[in-house]
Design goal:
Blueprint: H1 19-26, H2 31-57, H3 61-65, H4 68-91, H5 100-105, H6 121-146, H7 151-176
Helix pairs in contact: 2-4, 2-6, 4-7, 6-7
């Protein structure tokens, strides 16, 4: 802190002095491009959490009641993905937009909006499935960029991707009867893979 005690006047760290960033740059990572991908990814996770809240609320009737818990697992785990990756964005010298509208507009995936014929539960599942498949592609791009070059970002991204792949399999099973080996989580939003990068996970 400066002599005046004003936090705004603290000395700024130069990017070239951040060894953790320089190491991955030297390994061939375009940090700016990576940050763009990460912000787009966490924006998609955050907005998906919001839209999944609406989708879950509209899983009504006997058919809908049977999938609410599965939707809730995916919903909370998507929020966990946001929580797991955001610290890495700041470690790399990035930051989230201060305006949430600007943030939402950066999402890597389309909004998972409630379908017009939402009383047909299968239509809701189609929206859920599309969102998970887009997320897989989003995190796969991060994994491809960081594999063998940025172990920390790669580890977080591949753990998130593992859970997105599981989510896809759940919704494929519900929609098409394709076996997914789905088992109930030990608790809602367990995040068995990405949870290792969460500071607030319970269980």
């Amino acid at each position: 802190m400066s002599k005046s005690g004003d936090p705004a006047k603290t000395m700024q760290v130069k990017e070239e002095d951040v060894v953790a960033v320089q190491v991955i740059k030297q390994a061939g990572v375009d940090v700016k491009k990576l940050l763009d991908l990460l912000i787009a990814g966490v924006s998609a996770e955050f907005t998906t959490y919001y839209y999944y809240t609406i989708l879950r609320m509209h899983c009504v009737g006997l058919d809908g009641e049977g999938i609410k818990e599965i939707v809730e697992d995916a919903r909370i785990e998507d929020r966990n993905h946001f929580e797991a990756m955001v610290p890495r964005i700041y470690e790399l010298g990035g930051s989230l937009p201060e305006d949430i509208r600007e943030f939402a507009n950066k999402a890597a995936c389309p909004d998972a909006k409630l379908p017009e014929n939402w009383r047909d539960v299968k239509e809701i599942i189609k929206v859920l499935l599309a969102a998970e498949q887009c997320a897989i592609k989003s995190w796969a791009a991060v994994c491809e960029m960081t594999f063998g070059k940025d172990p920390r970002t790669y580890d977080i991204a591949q753990r998130i991707m593992q859970e997105e792949i599981e989510h896809e399999a759940w919704f494929l099973e519900l929609l098409y009867g394709r076996p997914s080996a789905h088992f109930r989580r030990r608790f809602i939003g367990e995040s068995p893979h990405a949870g290792q990068h969460l500071r607030t996970i319970h269980g």
